[in-house]
Write a structure and sequence with these properties.
CATH topology of one domain: Arc Repressor Mutant, subunit A
CATH class of one domain: Mainly Alpha
Strand content: under 5%
CATH architecture of one domain: Orthogonal Bundle
Helix content: over 70%
Amino acid sequence: MLMSGNDMSIRERALGFLSRREYSRLELKRKLSPHAEDEHEVESLLDDFSSRGWLSEARFAEQIVHTRRSKYGTQRIAHELKEKGVSADAVAAILPGLRESELETARAVWMKKFGTPPQDARERAKQMRFLASRGFGAETITMVLRRQEDD
C-alpha cells in the first residue's frame, strides 16, 4: 500500500531524504520540522540517526568538498559548509586538504574560463574578480595570473 505524503512519519521522511544524499543536521532539521508535532521529536530523531551513523557531519562535509572542489576555492567551500550548519571544527579539519589543491584548481578554472593572459589592467581586474567570486584567495589569484603573464 502506498502512503500519501501526509501519512509518512518523520522517520520515514528522514530516511527517504538520507537515501538520496547526505544532509547536514541543520538541513535535515529544516526539512523535517514542518512535518513534526514538536521540535523535540525532530531533535531526538536526529540524535538517534547520528548515534546510528546514518547522519554524519563528516560524510556530509566530504560530499560537499568532493562535488565543489573542481570549481570553487577554499573560501567559498568553507562558507557553504558553515551556511549548511557544519561545525567550525569539521570545517577546520577539511581546510588543509583544500588549500593543498587550491592553486591547481584555480589554474584549471582560469584556463577553462579565459585561457589567455589579460591584455590590460581592465581585463586583469575582470579575471581577478571572476576568480575571487569563485572563492579563491588573493594570493592564489595573484599566483595564477602572474604565472600566465610570465608564460
